Amino acid sequence: MAADRSVPARERLRDKSNANAEWSEAGPRLLPQVWPAIAPSFVVPAGGTIFTIGSCFARNIEEHVARLGFRVPTLSFTVAEAERAGGRDNAMLNKYTPAAIQQEFAWTRRMLDKGGTVEAADVAELAFTCADGMQIDLQLGGFRPVSPERLVARRQALFDVFRQAFTADCVVVTLGLVETWHDDFTGLCIQQAPVTNGFRRSLDRFSFRRLDFATCRAQVQEAIDTVRAVNSSANFLITTSPVPLDRTFTRDDVITATMHGKSVLRAVCGEIVEANERVDYFPSYESVMLTRDWAVFQNDRRHVSDAFVGKIVLRLVDSYFREAPIDYRMAHAAYMASVAGESADASALKALWEASPKDVRAFAHYLKALSSTPAALADAALRYVGAAAKPEDVVRVARTAKRDDEEAATVIGAIASAVEAAAGDAALPAAYADLWRLWLQALLREERLSEALDIVAAATARWPDDAGLTELAGVVDRRARRAGLFDAAPGVQGGPELPPAAPAPPTPLDVLAEAFDVGDSGAIAAALGPVLESGAGAEKILEIAQQAKRAARDGVVSPRLAALADAVAAHAAPGGGAPDAAFFPLWRMLSQALWREDRRADAKAAAIAAADLWPDDEDALANLDAVKRKLRKHGIAATSADSHTPDAPPTAAAPPHLTDAAE
Q1: Which of 277, 371, 451, 631 lies at a CB distance of 3.0 to 4.6 Å from 636, suitable for a disulfide?
Q2: Structural contact between residues 91 and 85, judged by C-beta atoms closer than 8 angstroms
Q3: Torsion angle, alpha carbons of 87, 92, 96, 99, to 10
Q4: Cβ partners under 8 Å of residue 308, min gap 6
């Protein structure tokens, strides 16, 4: 809300209206989580239209708001899988900087003024033409090349969404970054770093800029003015996204660069709120960043956990969206309880899903609430599958259930049973193999090994050529043996049954596999020696690593691979020097796993270590080149990798110790 900057001293000193003015009284709002007081200047009417724009934090908010019965136009935007810029259908709408937000609103306003029909001339300054004639929309995330005709059609669809900001009851703006890339040819800022192959010959056209306070403030004010020139009654809710930089293009530490950018944007928010009526600041940034608990973030330590976003939205509901119908609020409360691992009302979750049938997470949590009533769970799963759901949609529900629930095997099993029932005697498409893999991974996580034995036997019989299922069969077999289920375990491999009273002693490979499954680096090192002494070659050891890597593809596997690489280096080359080149794929698996875990510097180090160990091996050098290319694609200067000379001798007699880096 606009405020007078200059207040007479006597008046201000006498003003005791702020009940939250003293830090000594802030304890209840600081612990156990930080929830600053809010004083709303407006309320959004029930069923009103809320337009969200900004960083990925805006995407988090919009999903929760939609569950409360509000219209959220941006959720209607979707593109084909090949064009997506992230996991969400509308991820390419992310606008991380004030410049990107202002430019999109300005373009939409121009389209409104000309009647709303998008033509090729209207996208000319937004489009980058690649050498093959395909075009990239520089204002949309992902930089996926499309045909010129598709670019215009997609822009038309985007306009049809963004025009609704000019009629919305409330516009929610989340400011994310101040680091931006500038197209010096058009004078526009672009959505992300120009690092894909299509830009290689045109890099001189672009420059990097870190926006200052004055520029950011002017751009945010212009964005508000652009909308209110058409929609004068629009309310604005503005916040700073707590999601830190993935990487910085400055010379600062990414932590320092993140704090610089967030400080600028938080100050901009304060100035904008003071200068405008019906523009409120919502302190979600403070709640996330000042709460002394890493659990507010997801495992990547960047994105805010859905449970904490839900708590933020509940505060939004109580402050700005309190006119949402009580049944919607109760349904959303049930959803948040389920996300937090608490029991939830199945009927409320069912109502939430039925109100928004495309809400995969709502449906997954509805199934979770039914897990204690098998008949109701089976019926709900069958109705979903029977409604002509595509295999990829079914798998997506199962993947969501596995991600959100540590005990999702029952739900995924019900979905798989529904798929079989719906198919009848018809063969199941190969796309459903992913569903069975998720089911097996969930069973393994819950140590439900007897069930896993039955499921993996049926799955490998149904899809005998599926490498992922075959590798999971090996993992199930080893864990079953370790648990003493010897009468059933050999059946996974098609061998004869063994009586439980006389199990075969574990081979050295079995001992190594068990140590690798457990993830004990000391046990891995101790088990490798007997394996090598038994005559087992690199192929068998790599097979163990590959099986465990595939089985744990949704988790962190790099510490195990690093421990195995260290053990191989120590045992296979005890006098210094390099192990046999047949072991190189282990280092490649390690660098790939580190990259997937967003540990790019460690991935680079593993690739360099492999190139140092085997300087004449083409595969090792190709792996290093691949890491370099990925670093450049993500806009990361691969300085140490670029300075590496493959024909130089190893930097040390033994490779770097990898376990510490991976852990």
Answers
A1: 631
A2: yes
A3: 180
A4: 287, 288, 295, 296, 297
Q: Which two tokens stand for residue 184?
A: 């010096």
- Cβ contacts of 451 within 8 Å, gap of 6 or more: 409, 413, 443
Alpha carbon distance 95, 335 (integer Å): 28
Instruction: Supply the range of the domain harboring residue 410.
Output: 356-446
Residue tagged 């919607």 (tokens): 328
Does 361 lie in the same domain as 233? no
- Burial of 448: CB neighbours in 10 Å, binned 0-12, 13-18, 19+: middle
Q: Are residues 551 and 519 in the same domain?
A: yes
- Residue the block writes with tokens 């069975």: 436
| Residue-wise pLDDT tens digits, 205-258 | 999 999 999 999 999 999 999 999 999 999 999 999 998 998 899 999 999 999
Cα 30 vs. chain centroid, distance in angstroms? 28
Find the helix or strand (DSSP H, E) in which 173 lies.
Answer: strand 170-175
| Residue 90 structure tokens | 């509308």
| Assigned token pair, 259 | 């704090």
Which tokens sit at 398? Answer: 């199962």
Worst-scoring range by mean pLDDT, 39-43, 49-53, 98-102, 462-466?
A: 462-466
DSSP 552: T
Residue with tokens 């830090």: 23
Tell me the pTM. 0.67
pLDDT digits (tens, 9 = 90+) for 20-54: 888 888 899 998 999 999 999 999 998 899 999 99
